[in-house]
Amino acid sequence: MNSCTFQTSHDFAVAMDAEDPLAGFRERFHFPKTKNNEDCVYLCGHSLGLQPKKSKECVEQELTDWAQLGVEGHFYARSPWLPYHRLLTEQTAALVGAKPLEVVVMNSLTVNLHLMMVSFYRPTRQRHKILIERGAFPSDQYAVKSQIHFCGFDSPSSLLEVGPRAGESCIRDEDIQTLINREGDSIALILLGGLNYATGQAFNILDVTKAGREKGCIVGFDLAHAAGNVPLKLHDWGPDFAVWCSYKYLNGGPGCVAGCFVHERHARDLEMPRFAGWWGHDEQTRFEMKSEFRPMMGAEGWQLSNPPILALAALRASMDIFHEAGIERLRAKSVSLTGYLDFLLQQHASPKLSVITPHEAERRGSQLSIRVPQHARSSCSRLAAEGVSFDWREPDIVRVAPVPLYNSYQDVYRFVQRFASVLE
Q: Topology of domain 61-322, per CATH?
């Protein structure tokens, strides 16, 4: 929807919700309550997604099977635990635009990132640099620097950062391309986020991958803020690997099991260096308990331990909803919701705030980041007391995410009204 068609009245928000074909999905989630026992305005799905109402049922089923069957649940539970993680494979592959062979749900995001770097970051004296975005999520920075040091190099010479130009908040696509073209012969790994956690900027995965591969670089992505947020076509775009978490837009619950993509061209390279665990061993001979490790083909070959069934059960509840809603329909609503939020914020233009997320829909996801130079923390505290849930990042960024699965146009309207009131 073009901004010229948005209107500032509450009646407009009500009408948009009435016409929304995805509005019914809102009823499938639990909302935190205000002190008046009303649904809060929850715009924090970029940090922790809401709980699907079906999650409790899914988890309780596994608890019941555990109570009644004990260890036999691995074979005789309603959904046997031994192959349980594969119940999520088809839906995960569809969500990130991959083949089932290329994805696995396992571990946590940073564990998966380390596992991928062990295999794909193989530095030499001539090619040892890792390119990341300046201002990447701290966990990525810690992981990258520790891998550099683990391999015998030092971060001042091996860490290459691309950042915004002076006076700008987001990184220009052409600056990424220029840096890859200039430094590519010394870059062993390009590791960017699908979306930057602080600014909400979406990166062009296809163009970055193409530029990196033309220079002989390994290319990977942290999709923590992209999976379940924007459409992805990982197989076609061709990065070597990608990792993501499942507790933000995927609504799997706090600390939920994460996901990993390894491109098909690496699927049968069984000699690739990797950290091994028994669940990644060839399942045909896994229980023969042999000491020699032989990995499974595809992403499953990077598994370490048998998966946490209770966490997977909670995630299944959300992935069923995603599969029903469809990422393309969700993306269309997301573009409209963020456009509407951007429009209303502009109507309340104030020197106290500025939206630093790109205005172009293709360069952002469901999140808008708002810079509030004065009293950001106190503004957040006052809004939280009024039943509005969002977050902020030091020193002055308020992050707001109208998630299309469960947020409404009226949520956006209420947030802006209360936000403007607090700022005034």
A: Aspartate Aminotransferase; domain 2 (3.40.640)
DSSP 8-state code for residue 52: B
Distance (Å, whole) CA 27 – CA 176: 42
Q: How far is CA 139 from the centre of its chain?
A: 14
- Alpha-carbon gap, residue 192 to 134, rounded angstroms: 10
Q: 3-30+326-423 maps to which CATH number?
A: 3.90.1150.10
The structural domains of the chain, with segments of one domain joined by +, span 3-30+326-423, 61-322
Number of separate helices (H) and strands (E) present in the chain: 14, 13
Contact criterion met (CB below 8 Å) for 153 and 123:
yes
DSSP designation for 211? H
The secondary element (H helix, E strand) that includes residue 218 is strand 218-222
Antiparallel, parallel or unpaired: β 103-105 and 259-262: antiparallel
Is the model's pLDDT at 3 over the cut of 60?
Answer: no
Predicted TM-score (pTM) above 0.90: yes
Cα–Cα distance for residue pair 418/38, rounded to 1 Å: 16
Using CB atoms within 10 A of its CB, is residue 89 exposed (0-12), middle (13-18) or buried (19+)? buried
In angstroms, the CA 198 to CA 224 distance is 12
**Using 50, 70 and 90 to split pLDDT, how confident is the model at 1?**
low
Summarised one tens digit per residue, pLDDT across range 288-299 is 999 999 999 999
Over the range 366-397, which residues count as b (16 or more CB within 10 Å of their CB) and which as e?
bbbbbbbeeebeebbebbeeebbbbbbeeebb
Contact by Cβ (8 Å): 40, 389: yes
